[in-house]
Design brief:
Elements lengths: L9 E7 L12 E9 L9 E3 L10 E5 L11 E6 L7 E10 L15 E6 L2 E6 L9 E9 L5 E10 L3 H7 L6
Antiparallel strand pairs: 1-5, 1-7, 2-3, 2-6, 4-5, 6-9, 7-8, 9-10
Amino acid sequence: MSSLNKGLGKVEVTLRWDPSPSGAPDNDLDIIAATYPADGPYGEPAYLVHFDSRSPDGTITLNRDSRTGQGFGSDEVMTLEFDRLALTYARVVVGVAIQQREGRRTFGEIANTGVRILEGHQELARDDFAKVSGATAATVAEFVRDASGEWRFRPAVRGFDVDPDSFAATMGSNSF
């Protein structure tokens, strides 16, 4: 748990959405995390975690990856263990991208979208993508290591109109 004197430990990002109507192509949303090195926190990411993968050191893991939104509760879940992340990393940006296989889709066209960010039982943020309803991808959080070495959270819902590959390359290029 975080307190006033202690940075973030283990954080969970959960994503939900309703399945497509019968006969319509499936909606496939994906959580993506980009990890940036301390010597280049706004340059190229050191690595990305997405599509049923994990970080090289196992500190960031996509635990659940849905391609349809079917099921109860969260459709995708990513765990980030900041208390174990090497000192060589200073910034992690988390976003959500909509796969565009069957034509352009936006958050406003997908029913019941939502993201929650939790540390233990404490909710850090919740959003329904209404502010970015015309976007095809969005950042949802920025985590930054402060001068004392502790990780801090910044809500960062910002929309993009790009395909998932372009989003992964640009999602953390600016400060929030």
